[in-house]
């Protein structure tokens, strides 16, 4: 199981930006699908973005605002978040999946390893 550590969360005003980082204990670029998920109080965990083999996936609500990327040399996955909205407020978690080909890469159930999470708060 790969260990994941997120960082970069914080509090920003609506319209601001944050960049999240997820450092893995092993190289993930070829052996794992990586994803970012979020969960707000009282809501289900939601897949935000995923990446594997150069292909990226985003939930509709963040398309055009968020970008997932990967730096293999640093064993790190990033989530650049721009034009943040109050509804983006949530605990953001990084996850890794050894299941490389799935019907829906944004389904949490497909992921095996999870980080502790980093809080993102967007004020209006």
Can you describe this structure in just a few lines?
Helices cover about 0% and strands about 50% of the residues. It is built from no helices and eleven strands. Strands 2, 4, 5, 6, 9, 10 and 11 form a seven-stranded mixed β-sheet that branches.
> Whole-number radius of gyration?
13 Å
Mean pLDDT: 95
Q: Give the helix level as a range of percent.
A: under 10%
Order of SSEs, N→C? EEEEEEEEEEE
Overall 3D form? globular
Number of strands: 11
Weakly predicted, low-confidence segments:
none
Q: Major sheet, described briefly?
A: 7 strands, mixed
In DSSP terms (H or I, runs of 4 or more residues), the helix count works out at 0
For the record, give the distance between the C-alpha atoms at the N and C termini, rounded to a whole number: 39 Å
Briefly note the structural class of the backbone. mainly beta
Strand proportion, as a percent range, falls in over 45%
Structural key phrases:
seven-stranded mixed sheet, 124 residues, 49% strand, mainly beta
Account of the protein in words:
This protein is mainly β and about 120 residues long. About 0% of the residues lie in helices and about 50% in strands. The protein has strands at about 5, 10-15, 20-25, 35-40, 45-50, 55-60, 65-70, 75-80, 90-95, 115, 120-124. Strands 2, 4, 5, 6, 9, 10 and 11 form a seven-stranded mixed beta sheet that branches. Strands 1-3-8-7 form a four-stranded antiparallel beta sheet, with no helix packed on it. β4 and β5 form a beta hairpin. It is globular and about 40 Å long. The mean pLDDT is about 95.
